[in-house]
Amino acid sequence: MGLVVLAIAGAAAAPAHARPVVLAGADPEAYSLDLHYAAEGTGRLTGTERIHFLNRGPAAIDRVWLRLWANGPDRCQPRAIDVKIEAPARAGAESVKCSALEVRLPAAVAPGAGGEISLAFTVRVRHKDDRFGHARGISLLGNVIPTLAVQDDRGLHLEPYSDNGESFYSLAARWDATLTLPAKLRAATTGAAVSDHVHRGLRTLHVETAQARDFALAIGPFHVTSTTEHGVRIRAFARPRAHTVRRALRAARRAVSIYTRRLAPFGGKELDMVLLGGGVGGFGGMEYPELIFTMPFEEVVAHEIAHQWWFGIVGDDQYHDPWLDESFASYFEERQYPFENQCQVRRPYELVAPWRRKFPLDSSMGVFDSHPTAYVEVVYAAGSCALQSLEHDIGRPRMTQVVRLLQSRFRFGVMRESDVIAAIREVVPRYDLAGWERRAHLSSP
């Protein structure tokens, strides 16, 4: 998520060992969608979905959980998504203010074996200007498609929705989607367009991607402008007569080029960019796999595209470890656009108000949701500064080695804080890592 932030006021440690994520339940292999959008009211999306998964756990499973994030923002008052589980599976209990739904399988799935569930759903687009909402004739459909909840070595993840940040911990899978909508409208989506046909007043769009953690879309009377960078097709979706498209496309090309050269290849074939002059629900932008909603400002575009590498490619548990994607995205944004960067590399927490310095960088959204200003100052500002501090200490070439190592080791996987520490230790074994952890205000060095 992007913020438009102006001025915001020893001896080597013992070796750190990464604790890799171990899945204990269903791992999605493929999602197949057949979607239909009707422009009635603020918009309505109906669809069917098939989810293929493997049981990665050590024991047989007889149920899985779906995240119904569309019900999250309003805490199911009113319900924004209705779901019908198709036989032979059946719906079980709802949880977390109906943002989670248990699905009971027709037969237990053995370890290493595969399973499948099918469902139908209806999503009513919210009136509010938000990442899931309606903005000046545009339907923003972020985090509305049901996805499998993650069960790992830390347990089943059914965290609450966060208005202030993100709660979206998900695993990468193949996505194949067909979307039917009125011909006068266009859709920006996760995935690359395979075909786009208009017939008898309806547009039928087919998109697919080999690896993505979620599927999002935005629908409206867009004008579409395209360019290419490092083999990635970049498309800008804007209302007709938008004057900032060319600048945003230049910023997008620059970001894709820099991140590809410094980090790793982009995760897909296409990147869609929805340009919103007023941002998204009070934020500068919002990221989804192969799709961003963003203000047309260069630094916001750079931040949201950085998320394609930090969360899109290298995933994390956003509720418990928000700094692992937001601080890294902010660091890469500020390396490109340093004009408002007030980082003091020896004292990253100088960017945090004194009465909020009690919050460690690695606090969870459970903490930050009660202290939203601390979230901005700690995770975005101090977190980026902590990474700049690390670069200052070890040098740009070795910092690049660290981030490349993380990108290669956790490509379409999940990264934890211990993995970051282990990567630093591997690249610079004699570095005073404990000193940097104290400076960064990490709670568990």
Note down, in words, how this protein is organized.
A seven-stranded mixed beta sheet has the order 4-7-2-1-13-16-15, with no helix packed on it. A five-stranded mixed beta sheet has the order 18-19-20-22-21, with helices on one face. Strands 5-6-3-10 form a four-stranded antiparallel beta sheet, with no helix packed on it. Among the domains are: 153 residues, Immunoglobulin-like; 117 residues, no CATH class. About 3% of the residues have low confidence. It is 22% helix and 32% strand. It is α+β, with helices and mostly antiparallel strands. Helix 6 packs across helix 7.
- Taking strands numbered 1, 2, ... along the chain, how are they ordered across the largest sheet? 4-7-2-1-13-16-15
**Tally of helical segments:** 8
User: What's the overall average pLDDT, rounded?
Assistant: 94
Instruction: Please name the CATH topology of the domain at 19-171.
Output: Immunoglobulin-like
* Low-pLDDT windows of residues: 4-17
Radius of gyration, in Å, reads 21 Å
Q: What structural class should be given to the helix and strand makeup?
A: alpha+beta
Share of helix among residues?
10-25%
